[in-house]
Amino acid sequence: MNRNLTQSIESWIAQGCRSIGQIQITPLPEGRYELRHTEDIARNDLTTYSEASDARALSFFDDSDVYRPLKTAPTLRHGWSLTLPDSTALRHALDYFYPAMTAIWLSHLKGELRLVPLRETLERQTGMYAVAKRLQDDEGQKLVGWHCVLEKCMKRTLWDFAPGQPLSQLAAEARTLPSGAGAPGFQEIPLICQEACNHLVPACRETVKKRERLASAEPGQPPQNTATT
Amino acid sequence: MLHKPNSALLLVGHGSTVNPDSSAPTFDHAEAILRMGIFKEVHCAFWKEEPSLRQVLHMVDSEEVYIVTNFISEGYFTRTVIPRELELDGEVTRRNGRTLKYCESVGNHPRMSELLLKRAAEVAPGVNPADTSLLIVGHGTNLNDNSAFAAKREVDRIRDLGIYGEVLNTYMEEAPLVSEWDTCTSRPNVVVVPFFIADGLHSYQDIPVLLGIEQDTGLAASQRDVFRQNPYRLRNKTLYYASAIGTEPLFAELILDQVTLFDLQHQADFSPETSTHNLSK
Question: Are A175 and A88 within one domain?
Answer without folding.
Answer: no
